[in-house]
Fold each of these.
Amino acid sequence: LSPRGPELLKEMGLVFDPGSVSTHPQDPGAADWDIAAAGPAAEAAETRWRPAHARFALRCEPPYLRAFSLEHLALQTTQCLRERRRILKSRLDPDEMLLSISQFPLLGTGTYIDHQGAPNGPLLRSQLLPDICLNSQPPFTLEIGGIVDRRGVVPYTGVPVFRDTNTVWPFVDEDLPADPYKGGILTQSCESNRDSACVMGSSTVATATPSAAAAPADLSANGLPSNAPWDALLNSQPPPPSRPLLLEPPSNKNCVLLDSPLFGIGSGGVLRVTLCAADLDEARSLHDQLAPISAIMAALTAATPIVKGHLVNRDCYWDVQCSTVDDRSAQERGIVPLTTAKGTLLKSRYGSIDMYLGPDETRADPAFRRVYNDCHFTYDKQSFWKMKEDHGIDSLLALHVSRLFVRDIHYASENMLSTGDTSSAMSGQEHFKRFLGCSRQNICLYPPNKCTSSGWEVEFMSLEAQLTDAENAAFITFIVLLSRVIISYRLNLYLPISLMDQNMARSQKVNAAGEQLFFFRRDVFGGRDGKSNGSGRISKRANLTPSRNTRPTSAGAERGTRGMNCSGVYAKAEYVELSVDEILNGSEAFGVTGILNIIFTYLNTMRLEYDVEQALRRQLLLVKRRASGKLCTLATWMRNFVRTHPEYQNDSVVSQSINYDMLRAMNDIEEGRVAAPELLG
């Protein structure tokens, strides 16, 4: 790894202001209207390059385009991505190469970065990573330090090792002790005053408790229980946790151990897709309807089968990222009784959404039912009632926002805390954006931005970065077109939060795109008439896993026509277990239309220019073929490369030479010197 990220930014003339959220020399203005028409080169030149937490990584964000169109999406997205890569490559040294990957395979083991130095530095306090890995700018050091300080110890994360024929079993990671308290990295007592969550005045914390017993008939049009007043519901107490949530340090048996938030924040490649909504109602709809598809896309873009020099028993990095940045204290995790903490938090700052936003209480949407929000979460009670009673914010949106205020903000610059200059860009809005930035979920909702004059935005967060620009463009196109279809056809993708969480867990598994089944709504056009089209019934299927030695295929193809004999049962179910192939490409046996088929129908109705429509269909074809199993994920390609390498000893260990050969091969594929038909077609 080359730690020259900050140097590259300086060479490109970008000066990072630690007190600002932007690294671009100037905020976009009216000229943005003309960027899209000027071509990929002009758009790439306006790209916002930003530093990441890790010195060996960079972030890039496209300019805010008010003149965005399907023509731009079809003809310029890929070219713009390639132009950005060309600009950055032109700054590299002769012995450097640029890769778009989720995680460096050898991070944390052996020698993996220039000028590596010794671990256990004052910034990271890690036994695996030296401080040179961390960008030394205050926002990054303060956020990493805030995670460690607030938790009381460096958060350990255990990643299960893939068991191959010669893997030493039980596997023990000798790099770290099993107990962080014995490893000399305890930074403060679990009874620290930092257990107190950020509050507003004399704020108190309550827990939103799902009303699972309420029947659909007892729900009003806005999705709230008509027979239960909100004050009684919001003051109810949660039941005790049914199982411990990371209550003890992970065992080092059969797991690779990670000991720094940097393994998850700033060093992992995430492909974020930000969607602009016409208004708040449209943004809420996109937030809710895109959430159930996030697990499907995580499985389809899986790209991290190697962690700390070992093949691991998962393909996605989502859970690892969420765990490494988990800053909940011992009280908030439920290890010790609550004394100074404001409540028990069931999830890390990074994770899947806690609740659906639903429609505004003044606008009925029969597709939404409050029983979909069937999981507990903690929220700030005072801020909830302040928004609801003083400012007229509806209950669901107020709950969504008040969840943020039960967690500390990791850092704030001095000008953010100034209350004298209300006209400053670093006003209350920027302060609120900092809270949003400290809590990342698979779907994020952002308010309008005064600097860019942008409206409400929804960010899709579960895509892992792909190797080539064509792949990244294909998944960007899919998410954008899906958002348009959701709005145009008023799709109903609602799924209970508990089932969505199960889907996220399944998406992490090896070859989840081909072998796992996911809960999904059978009829995505039903429910808009107020009827439940199945009354919440869930039908499960046996997961017939293909043999490990066979070519990756879809679960639906492996089962053949087995589902035809049970179609009558599934026809009455609201949610069924489906493969990725069946969800995206459809299944006659289970009466599933298929998301891609709906998108293709949408394109037929748009009367696009021939070259535009064909370009969009070519991009979607990659998604379609990967979902069907004809193309493999990057995680499967990497796993197969390692297991067929002549130096691999079938012991789950990825050596320096294997890693070097793999990264060179990946670079050759990205630059078009080597074909990879199993990956790209």
Amino acid sequence: MPLLISPKQTISELVLYLLCAVGYVRAASNAPGQPKQAVTVNAFELVGNSIASGQQVFLGTEDKVYIVDKTENNPTQINGHPAWAAEWSASSEQTRPMDVITNSFCAGGSVLGNGTWLNVGGNQAVTYGGDAAPSQLGGAPYDDPDGGQSMLNPCDGGNCDWFLTAPMTTRRWYPTLETLQDGSVIIAGGCMFGGYVNDAAQNNPTYEFFPSRGQPVLSPILQNTLPINLYPLLWLLPSGKLFVQSGWKTVLLDMNQNIETPLQDMPDAVRVYPASAGSTMLPLTPDNNYTASIMFCGGSNISTAQWTQNWDIPHWPASSSCVQITPDQSPNYVELDALPDGRTMGNLILLPDGRVLCLNGAKTGTAGYGNTTFTIGQSYANQPQLTPLVYDPKAPATKRWSLDGLSSSTIPRMYHSAATLLPDGSVFVAGSNPNSDANTTAPYPTEYRIEQFYPSYYNQRRPEPQGLPNQLSYGGSYFNVSLTLADLFGNVDSIQTANVIVMRTGFSTHTMNMGMRSVQLQSSYTGNSDGSAVLHVNQLPPNAAIMPPGPALLFVVVNGTPSVGIQVMCGSGNIEKQSMMPVQNLPTSNINSQQATGQKQISAKLARLVFAVSLHNTLLSTICMTF
């Protein structure tokens, strides 16, 4: 049937017809689609009740976030006791209680190479007010046995729950976990029975593995950094060594030889708990040759001898210092742009566009709580930081932090708050509970409200790439990702800066996101004569220390706007030595010359129209039916 154009039809109507006819409006069924629209970008929105306060959170499936609390008297009940865990659905904003069984207060966590999540350690069994229970095997009032090792296989059917596995060889309160090259996990540090800081009588200065490789191994840095060696900061480096930061000290650990090589002492401030600086490994990219740089911001400049509970902790100003180290290349820290003001307990969350979001925390004090004359209720921190910040590593020095256009939350997120990236590119925020038991009337109460923060890109029309895999290998054949003209915002040249990002969102607790990292895949491109394009994308680099095996999110980013992430499995899906394959050469990048010439003939008005049309998928699909 010929296309009939009335003299009265406008160029806008014609382009609208053509876009509908060639399929630029509707996404393919196997492609990521569009997220819900936010009321306001660069702002927070309330999205539900967490049931258990969000001391620990992680993304388990594309739709489900898992929440873990300490043993306390939460109002929701499950199996005869208060619920200390929950599952939140991003699609329905509904939460269901879960039974975490043991006391996971200040536990650590990570994901194994087969996709199972591990929650390790925690506190002894307690009664009301957090006091030690008469029996560590369970019993009234909470029936919460001593914390150990709990596991979860996430699901979307509403029928999965935590189960116990064999306990560790030793007790660990405040341990840190990191997933390794074979999909196993290293478990480091902690103490026997807890407290504001550690002490020699209960120190556990060792590390071990899950699945077990035998007895724990002694760690000199954890021996020598008392009393501030709880929740040591760990990252697996591309070299295969483990970066360890504890107290003021830093080392590289060769896990095979148990040899620690000292690096420069941490400058400016303590970064580990309870000083609780924000920290993250910055994105690993082809441009930086997949070299790891680790960033620390905030914390507290408190001397080792001053870490006691007999002085006015809540009014000590937090540090604004930010530093970075590239440990596989240099033993030294370098200064970065400082925060606009001091912040303790400020989470650093990697965004798929390469920026870093900083949110939560306080201007003064530290993490922790107690019963003294100087605490704010029971809180050791005061003056909540309600306004987020965004760090752009690519911006010029002195201009990397920005508050422009960012709205504040109304909810203090202090001690025991957490945050994690979601597949739609927003950030899930929950928790805050500087109290020994559930307390909704304290100056900083037990917090059950969940928020989502929507970054600046959130309401943009998202790329809807086709051809994304559900599993990534280490080396091997490249794959092709197709993008339409609408995905490229009306300009095929946008393919030149498009990229594919693999992100692990991590296990968030105590201002850490254990295991969080971002890896850009190597790619080239072909621009087609119809304005569409193809990204030719390599698999993961053949080095499992760059992105350890296990589940992750896969994003395609065009003009700084990420697609909705899909969950993929990195590696074999098993806890085992991963296969490394040769990297296939990518095609040479090019844009069809016919298309390049044709685009020069398209008016700026028409190009803007194509872009505008692409912003409203659902509305345009309805309009198309009238043609």
Amino acid sequence: MKVTPLVGLGFLGRSAALPANNAVTCSEKFSPISAADFVSAINPGWNLGNTMDAVPNEGSWNNPPVVAATFDDVKKAGFKSVRIPVTYTDHFTGKSPDWTIDPAWLQRVSDVVDMALDKGLYVVTNVHHDSWGWADVTVAGANITMIEEKMYRTWVQIGEKLACKSSKVAFEPINEPPANTAEHGTEINKINELFLKALAASGGFNKDRVVTLVGGGMDSIKTSQWFKAPTGYTNPWAIQYHYYSPYDFIFQAWGKTIWGSDADKQAMEADFANIRGNFTDVPLVIGEFEANTMIEPAARRKYIDFAVRTARKYGTSVMLWDNGDGALERSSHTWRDPILLNIITNAARGVSNSLADSTTDASAPEQSSSGYIFHKVGTDVTDQAVNFLLNGNTIKSVKTSDGKTLKSSSDYSVSQGTVTVKKSFLSKYLSPTAAPGSKANLTVTFSAGADASVEIVQWDVPTLGATTSRAVSGSDLLIPITWKGLYRLAAVKMIRDDGVYLFDDWTQWLGPLQQARGTYSSHWDRDGQYVKLKDAAISQVITGKVPATFTFEFYPRVAGNAVNYTLTV
């Protein structure tokens, strides 16, 4: 690799010269690839989330620094690509006009990209959480001149460092750039153009490298409304957008743990069809999508399966967001939900998956799930039926987690998509007096596609170590709990003693499992042997000056499987 000085470029038509930079020449071989072929080749992809994008530095959040073995895990799982988000905010060592990035950080980015390439993965890398700060064009008094200059210089330096990487590396200008108006959208279009201008100036193979351009917020609607492609550049380009919809299901807001109705599917398909209809000949990639891991798993798996299949229908590739607490447990090299993993890889190839069924009616007073066989302490063991959406497949076998195959007729029976597990088999694990907890996992195999899992759970109503306290603001409240079944919270109902909903009184118009419920992470959480009320919920009680009762709800979501905690003022 050789660098030669390049000076005097105009800045989007301005006459002032830019700071000198080095146009790289490469001795390596570059095999050009079209944007369409690149996007097809990366499906499905995986995100190295909360890692290189952590603030202020790699390792500052919930994940340790990257190791090459992580990419072995990703490759073996069937992913074809990795998106490597990178935040540069705290790695600038110089100010205007150079905006020098710490060479050690650029080298680290290059090294991590090479780790992924060495495993045969395609790579997309970007400028990530900078969009929260210096690159936010929507803030009052935003210094647009500074943002443009800094963005250009950032990408010149990244481009120089990565100039000679193979055509399996693509660039993305900025993650989810905020945009609330058409004027903001126009500025994001200019950032796309600055990005391409910087790549052209940086040299190497960057004029011919695939890029995934972005619209406002990387939102499909805003992108459809405001995105305009730059002209005069030779880069093969695609559009990248992100998909986290519907918000309440994805983020477990307002008690939403149900998904899969015809209306749910129609809404998602309409979203994918809309952006495809607006960019009929442009390769599209969903660079992030996911649903909260605490959601009931059958609903989550149905959602992910339909998203990947529908994206494929509309010629769109997908990259799963994984912040380190989601799909891959990196330190142990294990996938938290291997069934979901296989659903993604099969759906991306067009193979139909059979899926555990679950409640789809948002107005239902309870939620059922064939991802589980639940047995209540104190009740007799009986035959239990679990239902599957076969999607053209047939049921082949049922096995225990240690590989033993259940015997048809004596252990279970099959009628179309229903597997009835017999009392005689379940009694090996369940009884009226068995201790609560997860007892076994069954794997149901089909003629094609991913397997399905059924977890056998003995449950009772959890107990809290205390039931009341005075509301004190300034920190979250940890309440001791004895779990009696699954380590999983479904929702928390929050009502003041005068009947007023603590948050969002409009939820009265939602189904009975959503009314008055708070939002995961914002208002409630779990933490080992504790359930947690977040400071925002506590402060709301103090502000209202009325005691409130918090009803913690668990799986199965049935009447009585809940406990109350009261905050006084």
